[in-house]
Amino acid sequence: MPEPGSGSVARLERWTGWGCDAAGLMLVAMAILINVEIVARGVFNKSTLLADEYSGYLFVWMTLIGFGHALQTGAFLRVEALVTRLSPKPRAWADLVSAAVGLVVALICTYATGTLVRSSIRFGSVSIQPSATPLWAPQIIMPLGFLLLVVLYGALLLQAARRLGRPAAPSTPAGRSA
């Protein structure tokens, strides 16, 4: 992320922190929904008719909201065994390339899922389940979640570019000539 302490970093950290908290609440809601379905079927021989469908929606929302926090905290798809062995300059290049690739993928996913949501709205698509949920409602998180990744990968790209632009630190101890 950009340099710690900057206003944009604090804002991004707040947003992804709230997203992580929201994802946790969705996990709790999903567990409650599934357990209500289990009890309803086991005790009353009835179904809620929406537990499976809405648990799936919650799972997708939880995942996409959690992506931002995972990326920002360094827990998102990294090959640490290789990257940690690199010296600072090659590590910055690796970070730059990975952020650029992540940015491109996130942009493509934002566009594709945005197109899906627009199509669902245009055609009035609803789920095939008894709830007949308008599909744009559970789908809207997809382009929003990927858009957050676009912003975060953009910030990582800028950070890596800044590191590449800095002069290398002297490798000799302070006070000694090279």
List the helices and strands and how they pair.
Blueprint: H1 7-44, H2 51-72, H3 80-83, H4 88-123, H5 136-139, H6 141-165
Helix pairs in contact: 1-2, 2-6, 4-6
How would you describe the overall organization of this protein?
This protein has 178 residues and is mainly α. It has one domain. Helices cover 72% and strands 0% of the residues. The protein contains six helices and no strands. It has helices at 7-44, 51-72, 80-83, 88-123, 136-139, 141-165.
Portion in strands: under 5%
What about the largest sheet?
A: none
User: What is the total domain count?
Assistant: 1
Give the SSE string.
Answer: HHHHHH
Number of strands: 0
Report the total helices: 6
- By secondary-structure content and strand pairing, the structural class works out as mainly alpha
Rg, nearest Å:
22 Å
Cα distance spanning the termini: 33 Å
Q: Outline, from the CA principal axes?
A: elongated
Which regions have little confidence, pLDDT < 50, spanning 5+ residues? none
Question: Helicity, in percent?
Answer: over 70%
Keywords:
178 residues; mainly alpha
Task: Give the gist of this structure.
With 178 residues, the chain is mainly α.
